[in-house]
Structures are given as structure tokens and as C-alpha cells.
Amino acid sequence: MIGYQFGKYDPNSQGKTTFEQLLDIFLQLITYTSGDVSEALNWLTQLDKEYGLTDDQYGLGDFIDELKEKGYLEDNKVDGSIHITSKSEKSIRQRSLEEIFGKLKKSKQGNHQTFKPGGGDELNPDTRPYQFGDTIEQIDFTNSIRNAQINHGLDNFRMQEDDLEIRETDFKTQTSTVLMIDISHSMILYGEDRITPAKKVAMALSELITTKYPKDTIDIVVFGNDAWPVEIKDLPYLQVGPYHTNTVAGLELAMDILRRRRNPNKQIFMITDGKPTCLKIGRKYYKNSFGLDRKITARCLNLAAQCKKLKISITTFMIASDPYLQRFVQEFTETNNGKAFFASLDHLGSFIFQDFESGKRKTVY
């Protein structure tokens, strides 16, 4: 019998196939497991048992086969393990961007607008009368010819200075950003997962800059006992280690990276949940996890002052509520003349997005 088969309406599915719904969950789990496919699939199996994500017609085995067919997973021919591909990494970043920042279209310009009119490549809808010194490229000939026709008539057509209209262009700015991520052990202490939201924000910000602002630069620095750069493609695999918090090493590396950038606008975004507890002196580590150590905090404040001289702003996103830590962050921020947000995990992404976008709309002198 030919007819229609109706199923239960799920308002969250938005017309997605079973594969697409499972893919959304799988990519979220991959972020939580730091790229461990086996663990993610085990979690997905448990979720399927509890919530019935699949049915008799389409099971998890079919989903795994389709992941491989569509290039999301690859088999390791040496040891037989499964790992995600670059396509999966890209999909994770895109979904993080959509989740945190909303859907954004790619821009060819890739620059940030300011409100100051002047030489630039982005047309402003406003026009104004011609002034001495304006270039011929700025003349809006359509409006100027229309003005000449109105002012002088078609029979006696001529164009004078008073007929000319100028189409404004806007200055655009390029920005070099270093995103510092704390991967010390405190990022998973007390049963609270803080590293996963930090990774999601990093992936979303990276995808935002590479798609909407391709002329900008974004570098990722992680810091524990030491600091080192990571590639954007490595973000899903970030893990917290048994580290202290060497904020000084992270700042020094971020400054070194930004010194090599030719963009006039440079900034550091630092995501951390704990106090600086570590310092490397020569080959030895100086550590103190009990309270704020003046020897460590003094170096942090000194670097904040150096960044201010280099016109590098530091925005600290502090995932902590301890009053004494907030006082230190406030002092650190005042020393740099930067900004600080005491953000909850739920609102971390929106804080960073708002600060990044608002920083691109400042007047450039």
C-alpha cells in the first residue's frame, strides 16, 4: 500500500536526518574527550541506550560506517585504531562558531570597520559635497551627473565643483590576536570541566577570524608549567595536564609572537581560572600554590606594564570568583590599561565575542 509514514515530531531536529543529529552529538563528544574517538563512541552508545537515539533501521554501526564513507573518520592501518580527520576538525570549529557566535557569512574584505571616514576600501552609504583635496576616485559620478542635470539642464549640460558629490570610504583596521589558554590542573578541579568551554571559545574565535577577518592573524598559546604555541587544527585535542600556572611564560611567548606581527593593532586574550603559581628561573621552576606569591605576581605586573608600552592590550577572562584573585586581576588590568571579565563558563563565549567585535569599531587616529 502506497502512502505516508508519520513519526514523532521533534522540534529540535529541524528536519535533520538521523546521521546529522548523531553527527552533532558525536562532534560535541569529541571535544569533551579531546579527540578520543573510542571514548566518544562509547559515550554515544550509552546515550543511545538511555535515550533511544537510533532505531532498528539505522543503528550506531551504520552511523560509524557513514562517518568513514563521508570522510569524518579514518582507520589507522598500523594498529587498527580510529581517528578523526581534518574534515571533522573543521566541522568542530564551525559548530563551535555557530554555537557561540551565531552564523556569520564570509567577508572578502576581512578587515574591521571604524567610524572615522578616510582612505579605505569599504564604501560608506553617506555622501557629502566636494572639498579641496578630495581625489577623483572618491567622486560619486552618478549623483554628480544627476546634480549637474538638475542645476544646469540637459540643453546646457556642464559640471561644476558645486555639482560634485563625494562617496565616503571608511578606514579599516587589521588586528593580531594571541589567545592564551590556561591548561593547568585547576581547569578540571572540583569536578568542573573548564577546559572544554575554553576550547570551544578558542575554536569559535579562530573560525570567526579566518572566515570573517582573513587578513587578521590569530595565534593560540597554551600555558601550564611552560608555554608553547598550538595550531588551530590541534585545538580539539587540548588536554589539561598536571601543571601549575606559569602566566609569565604565556605572556612572554605571546609578546614574542606579537613583536613579529606588522599590524599596528595587537591584543592578548587570556582565559584562566587560577592564580599564577609558577615561574621558571633558569632551568628550575619556582612554584607556590598557596595564595599569591609576590615574586610571581611582580613579574606578571611587570609584563603587563611592558605590554602597555608596546601598545599591546590584555583582556583577561577570569573563570574564578575568589575575591583576592579578582583584586589581583584588577591590579594587573590597571597596570596594562586593559580589560577584565569575571565570566561564568556559560557566558565566556559571548564576553569574548563582544569584546573582539567592539574593539574593531573604535576610531583610529
Largest sheet: 6 strands, mixed
Q: Percentage of helical residues?
A: 25-40%
N-to-C series of helices and strands? HHHEEHEHEEHEEHEEEHEHEH
Number of helical elements: 10
Mean of all residue-level pLDDT scores: 82
The CATH topology name of the largest domain reads Rossmann fold
- Count of individual beta strands: 12
Judged by helices, strands and strand pairing, the structural class is: alpha/beta
Q: What would you report as the Rg, rounded to the nearest angstrom?
A: 27 Å
- How would the global form be characterised? flat
CATH architecture of the largest domain: 3-Layer(aba) Sandwich
* Low-pLDDT segments: 103-122, 361-365
- CATH evolutionary superfamily of the largest domain: von Willebrand factor, type A domain
CATH level 1 name of the largest domain = Alpha Beta
Instruction: Please give the alpha-carbon distance between the first and last residues.
Output: 74 Å
Strand-residue fraction?
15-25%
Give the neighbour order of strands across the main sheet: 7-6-5-8-11-12
Number of domains: 3
